[in-house]
Amino acid sequence: MAKRLLEQKQRIDQERLYGPREALELLKELEGAKFDESVEVHVNLNVDPRRADQMVRGTLMLPNGTGKVRRVAVFAEGENAREAEEAGADIVGSEDLAARVQNENFLDFDVAVATPDQMRVVGRLGQILGPRGLMPNPKSGTVTPNVARAVEDIKKGKIEYRVDRYGIIHGIIGKKSFDLDSLVQNYFAMRDELQRVRPAPVKGRYFKSIVVTTTMGPSIKVDPAVERE
């Protein structure tokens, strides 16, 4: 793998800013791993995450999904539980599910959704779910009375984004097997969304740098000034 990575890097001009389409096309051409790698975007924003008015966080429905099958756990009871199951939730429960998480360290899911009344149950799991990014949150749409809609959106490719302590957003915009147009559309959907939620206090250049990469591949610098191709 090290030899292949070196060969891949030799095809990339590290001093150049590529257009988004050109960068993604080059990523697809590079010989990579034997599995279908995810295509990632890492955006360095000119924000200070320590300030509440510069926290960049939200959800985004990618037009072409992520290509990743996501397991969804839903904390709900009664009719809400039935609707979640019909919508395709992988795990549904309440006190019983919380007990599995707490006592058996059961974490075989990628996203957790809860109805508002279930937060009394989920709240006890904060120390387990929180550090893993699995804690339901109203801002990300994972605490909602409409759990069926939430499950459907997640299954279709709805993603959550959140700036880390270094001011960087990390996101997956598809698989290497996606056609080029689909990856380009997803890239600009993410870029447009980040531009839409630009914090008002931020002055000057907002996008400091953007790179695209694959799970096992090298990164390619993208021109952050390109808004559309």
UniProtKB/TrEMBL annotation:
Domain of life where this protein originates: Bacteria
GO process terms (BP): regulation of translation; translation
Entry GO CC: large ribosomal subunit
Keyword terms: Repressor, Ribonucleoprotein, Ribosomal protein, RNA-binding, rRNA-binding, Translation regulation, tRNA-binding
Record has Repressor as a keyword: yes
Keyword Iron appears in the UniProt entry: no
Gene Ontology MF annotations: rRNA binding; structural constituent of ribosome; tRNA binding
Pfam families: Ribosomal_L1 (PF00687)
InterPro entries from the UniProt entry: Ribosom_uL1_bac-type, Ribosomal_uL1, Ribosomal_uL1-like, Ribosomal_uL1/biogenesis, Ribosomal_uL1_3-a/b-sand, Ribosomal_uL1_CS
Similarity comment: Belongs to the universal ribosomal protein uL1 family.
Entry function: Binds directly to 23S rRNA. The L1 stalk is quite mobile in the ribosome, and is involved in E site tRNA release. Protein L1 is also a translational repressor protein, it controls the translation of the L11 operon by binding to its mRNA.
NCBIfam families membership: rplA_bact (TIGR01169)
Assembly mode: Part of the 50S ribosomal subunit.
Name the record gives this protein: Large ribosomal subunit protein uL1
Organism per entry: Rubrobacter marinus
